[in-house]
Amino acid sequence: MTPAAWKFAGIGLALALLLSLGAAGGVWIAANHYRPLLDTSNANLAKTKLARDNLEELAGEQGRKLGELVAAGELRERNASQAIAKAKEEAGADYAAANRLMQERTGGDPAEVAASIIDQELGL
């Protein structure tokens, strides 16, 4: 090998070494710059996932409670309908008796008529 070839090989090797050192230094600087940002982002990601899971659980619980409230409302509605039907059935006889008494009313002083109706109803 000629001295000029050794000179070019030495310069090429020096350039390769300088490029390698520059690349390693760039990687080290970038790692030192981005590592805290990555750590912060990873911590935020973990917190976000935890909050999301908590919200999903709360939404599921809220859905279950809402279903229970709807079922309880429907039960109250059915019970109220049954109570209304029962009250109408029980009041039917009294309503018929009141209508009958009103039809038997003969006139005169309302107080005397009311007293006679009450006496008649009580069997006096």
| Uncertain stretches of 5 or more adjacent residues | none
Number of helices, where a helix is a run of at least 4 consecutive DSSP H or I residues: 2
Structural class per helix/strand content?
Answer: mainly alpha
Assembly context of the chains: single chain
Largest sheet, strands/sense/barrel: none
| Backbone shape | rod-shaped
| Rg | 48 Å
Distance between the termini: 148 Å
Strand content: under 5%
Find the count of extended strands (DSSP E, 2+ residues).
0
Helix content: over 70%
Q: Quote the average pLDDT.
A: 87
SSE arrangement, N to C: HH
Q: How would you portray this structure in words?
A:
93% of the residues lie in helices and 0% in strands. With 124 residues, the chain is mostly helical. The chain is rod-shaped, with a radius of gyration of 48 Å.
SSE arrangement:
Blueprint: H1 3-104, H2 110-122
Question: Key features?
Answer:
93% helix; 2 helices; 124 residues; rod-shaped; mainly alpha
In short:
The protein is an all-alpha fold and 124 residues long.
